[in-house]
Every structure is written in structure tokens, then in C-alpha cells.
Design goal:
Elements (H helix, E strand, L loop, with lengths): L11 H12 L12 H11 L1 H11 L1 H12 L5 H28 L6 H24 L7 H21 L9 H16 L5 H7 L1
Helix pairs in contact: 1-4, 1-8, 2-3, 4-5, 5-6, 5-7, 7-8
Length: 200
């Protein structure tokens, strides 16, 4: 896909939703009102390297949102793609590991559904990445990546919210992140096949 010039590769509405996702790092994530930022800052002070590792692992949805927002400041889609793809790859890996851990852990609500989602989404992401890299496109498009990242956040967030039925209560940060991800997903909905054929 040729890079776009003259206009941001990420529309302003997408950037605002990305910033909303990133802002959830400071919103309450626990019932006690603790945010991810409250959890991460002591770790960063104690061990910067360890804190950064934990940041990348548990705050990849927020880093994805930041990357989407940064994409609005860039003029080249190919430059924006690595910023967005890195947190998605980490997030996909974390979802896969969570799915694996649920196999032997005490079963939460809809455990089998999430295990299936983790395995299928990870397999498809690897397939789509390899197929796009081998094609004339040279890699996944920015729109595809934004849509995929939003899908991972929305699906995982909604599954986590379901766990409230088993006593796992989480703060408003989860709801804001899911809402922003769903809006991003809607704005990046796939073009119907019939419409693509008409346009071509």
C-alpha cells in the first residue's frame, strides 16, 4: 500500500479515541480506586527496567491508544504502522498466555470461549501478518491494525467485565477502554465486498 501524503494517516476522531484509551491508565482499574499508573509508578521508581517491562506487558492497550494518537501527527502511513503494530503484538501475546493459563486455572465465566478466542485470534494474527508480508502489499495496513487492536481490547474487556458475576470487580477504566475500542472498531469496519467491487 503506498504511503499517504498531505494528510494524517490516522483521522482526528481515531486519534481522540486513542488518547481516550491512553487516558485510562490514570483512571481507577480496581474497586479501591487504584489506577494502572498508581501500580506502575512505584515499580518504575524501584526498578526502571522492571517497571518498563511491566508497563509494556500490562498497559499495552493504553500504549496502543497512544500509538494510534501519535499516528495522527505523522504524514506517512508506513511510519505510523510500526508504532501501532508493536503494542498489538504484545497484547496478542498476553491474550494467548492468558488463554493458556485458563486451561489449568479455576474456570471463570465463559473460560472456554475466551480460550478459543485467544487461540483463534493469535493464529489468525500470525496468518494475516505472514500473508500480508508475502503479498504485494508488503505488510498489514494501518487500518487493519487499528481495527484488530480495537477488537482485542473490546473482546477482552467485555470478557473481564463478565467476571463481575463471579466477584471480580474492576474500575471505570475498563468500561471507558471498552467503549473507546468499540467506537474505534465501528469507525474501522470492513468495507462490504460488494462495495469494494463497485469501487474497483
Amino acid at each position: 500500500m503506498p504511503p499517504r501524503t498531505g494528510s494524517p494517516p490516522v483521522p482526528r476522531t481515531h486519534a481522540v479515541l486513542g488518547l481516550t484509551l491512553f487516558a485510562t491508565i490514570a483512571l481507577p482499574i480496581t474497586p479501591d480506586g487504584e489506577s494502572l499508573l498508581d501500580i506502575l509508578l512505584p515499580l518504575l521508581r524501584e526498578s526502571p527496567l522492571g517497571g518498563l517491562t511491566v508497563l509494556v506487558m500490562i498497559a499495552c492497550p493504553q500504549l496502543f491508544g497512544l500509538a494510534v494518537a501519535v499516528g495522527h501527527l505523522l504524514r506517512d502511513e508506513q511510519t505510523a504502522i510500526p508504532f501501532v503494530q508493536l503494542p498489538i503484538s504484545v497484547m496478542q501475546g498476553m491474550i494467548f498466555l492468558l488463554g493458556v493459563s485458563l486451561i489449568s486455572a479455576p474456570k471463570p465465566i465463559a473460560a472456554l470461549s475466551f480460550i478459543g478466542f485467544a487461540f483463534v485470534s493469535s493464529g489468525y494474527y500470525l496468518y494475516a501478518s505472514a500473508e500480508a508480508a508475502a503479498s504485494a502489499r508488503g505488510g498489514l495496513s494501518l487500518r487493519w491494525l487499528v481495527r484488530w487492536g480495537a477488537l482485542l481490547i473490546a473482546a477482552t474487556g467485555l470478557w473481564l467485565r463478565m467476571q463481575a458475576l463471579r466477584g471480580l470487580h474492576m474500575g471505570i477504566a475498563l468500561d471507558v477502554a471498552v467503549a473507546a475500542a468499540l467506537l474505534l472498531l465501528a469507525l474501522n469496519a470492513r468495507t462490504p465486498v460488494a462495495a469494494r467491487r463497485t469501487a474497483s
